[in-house]
Amino acid sequence: MTDQVPTLYEWAGGAEALEQLTEEFYARVRKDELLAPLFARMADDHPKHVATFLGEVLGGPERYTEHHGGYRHMLSRHRGRAIKAEQRARWVELMLEAMDVVGLPDDAEFRSAFIGYIEFGSRRAMANSQPGAGPTRRTTIKKWGWGEALPGDE
Ligand code: HEM
């Protein structure tokens, strides 16, 4: 039975859907007064890399680990950035907007699981970005699943 449950990655629509999401999201980030300064030197392929990272988190192929430096690279990109609480909150807000604009599935089960990860990941990113943040015990990308509500639950 459990084998038949799709991954969040499959449910979202795979790599293509996640790339659309991050393109839409970073287009908003670039225009946002709170976030634009943090991302002023972001490379053109940044949205694609974050889509690859999210795909791995959501149970898709482990491409970020295999080709983009994995967990440690992601961590190094947040280190020292001193992300502020209001910047994190805006990041989450724009991500939720982008999900609707690109039409990610909007069933309660998918959204609660995905948003749960967005909260988790953004809070970790903020904590690890603070000056003097210590080393993390984690060395690999955290995987995220459906949690308490599987697809089709009422
Ligand atoms: C679920 C939450 C998050 C995930 C999954 C995530 C993921 C990533 C990844 C994978 C990279 C490296 C991309 C690459 O390999 O090129 C990155 C870089 C970065 N992230 Fe995040 N991030 C998250 C939250 C945040 C938040 C909340 C902020 C700030 C408000 C932030 C700011 C940045 C910045 C400034 C960079 C470097 C951009 C550059 O290259 O100039 N991230 N993030």
Automatic annotation (TrEMBL):
Pfam families: Bac_globin
InterPro entries: GlbO/GLB3-like (IPR044203), Globin-like_sf (IPR009050), Globin/Proto (IPR012292), Hemoglobin_trunc (IPR001486)
UniProtKB keywords: Heme, Iron, Metal-binding, Transport
Highest rank taxon of the organism: Bacteria
Family statement: Belongs to the truncated hemoglobin family. Group II subfamily.
Protein name: Group II truncated hemoglobin
